[in-house]
Amino acid sequence: MNGTNTTSALRIAVVAACPFPSARGSQVLIRELAEGLASRGHEVHIVAYPVGEHLVPVRGIVVHRPRWLTSGRMERLPWLVRKSLWDVLLVMTLCRVVRAKKIQLLHAHNYEGLFVACVAKWLLGCPLVYHAHNVLNDELPTYFRKRWSRWLMGLVGEAGDRLVPRLADVAVVLSAAQRDALLSRGLPPDRIIVVPPPVPDLGEGAARSRTNVRMPAGEFVVGYAGNLDAYQDLGVLVRAFCWLRERHSAAALLLVTHDRDWTRHAPRELLALVGRPEVKVVVCRSFAETRPWLSGADVLVCPRGSWSGFPIKLLNFASLQKPIVLSAAVAKAIGWSHGATVFQAGNEADLASVLLRLAENPSARAGAADAASRFANGLPSLEMVSEALERLMSWTWWLKWRGVRRLTQIPEHRWGVDSHVPTSYKPADGRREDEARA
To answer: Of 91, 110, 114, 417, which alpha carbon lies 20 to 30 A from 47's?
Structure first.
């Protein structure tokens, strides 16, 4: 159902310094927010890298990409060189779109998107809303393995957290923990707003047809869905499963990913288990394909210890009303209150103990499933989030042209996100593209 626009329509350029569209969590959130704004009558243009995973069509928005250096020769360049070139081209493309489409406001996602958008802001004067998906000091070290490099990246991330968000007129964060982290690094409190990500409609699961899937051999299936990159801490999950398997012979492990080349990113512990009947890795190109697999699991796990990002997979897990196991760091950041399914980040023995307790106690699984349902009901819908962003952007644009730097004039109750009430979800109406939420 299309939302009702209560403000003047804006021409918005969304800056996504990443492949788009894609089934990864950040790109899924970018797409949903852009489509949500478009459904409320705004003209939305996405400026993104020249590559993407075109799993489903985007609706109501226009995607602009760099025109040059998009051939296969770019793939031969080192990853960092290729990405740097794309960022430079993205700046040129964004400036072209801003001038051609008479863009009124920039909506930049993540740090790279903010840097790109800042150039257009300085050159062309557009107000800028920054959507923070993480805290750099927390996430950047997770991409490195050596201790000295992680320490160095932690320093780089700390500097970025203190300097980069100040470049925007206002920063949007996904959780109160992110807000507190940026406030502690000097970002003025009147330039930061909490807007949680939208949860899938709970009715969508029943609307999807069930397909026959062949689960791994086992009576207690531990499930995971997402990419297999290092920051997901899948090694912790695999080691915990091996410990669990020794004590509960009916345990099985199911991993679902959209990455066809997943063996390049999978941890060594997982590759050593591939081929066993109790372990199964499935490649699904859409969440419609993923949902039947996850519905067959007994418990779903988010093993990552990085707290600052809001794992979109948790929203998918919660929409299925399945028991969810997650690290204490993530649980604290997102406001998870069911302590029986929380383990210490990076501690495979603690994770295995939680899984063993759920495997042997059906009532504990039922309580955990109920906690997941309550968590989902406590999050805003896409319509609520779109309305909050609409009001934020309208006020930011208006105050910018009035020469007002800070947002203290905006009434707090207008956002409807910090003090939201549980949402009454409506049945799927065909507008939402659940297939791409992987």
So the answer is: 417
Domains and CATH numbers, the chain: 11-198+381-436 (3.40.50.2000), 204-377 (3.40.50.2000)
Q: What is the pTM of this model?
A: 0.83
Dihedral of CA 221/224/229/233: which sign? negative
Helix (H) or strand (E) holding 312: helix 312-319
Residues 6+ apart with CB under 8 A from 384: 198, 416, 417, 420, 423
CB 16 within 8 A of CB 130: no
pLDDT digits (tens, 9 = 90+) for 345-394: 989 999 999 999 999 999 999 999 999 989 988 888 889 999 989 988 88
The 8-class DSSP code of residue 245 comes to: H
Residue type, 167: L
**CA distance linking residue 404 with residue 400, whole number of Å:** 6
Type of residue numbered 429: D
Report the alpha-carbon distance of residue 138 to residue 158 in Å, rounded.
9
Q: State how far the Cα of 271 lies from the Cα of 238, in Å rounded to an integer.
A: 10
CB atoms within 10 A of CB 71: 8
Q: Which CB contacts under 8 angstroms, 24+ apart, belong to 156-159?
A: 158/185
Task: Let me know: does 156 contact 135? Beta carbons within 8 Å.
Answer: no
Round the CA-based radius of gyration of the chain to a whole number and report it. Answer: 22
Count Cβ atoms within 10 A of the Cβ of residue 5 and give its class: 0-12 exposed, 13-18 middle, 19 or more buried: middle
Give Cβ neighbours of residue 192 (< 8 Å, ≥ 6 apart). Answer: 165, 170, 171, 172, 173, 179, 182, 183
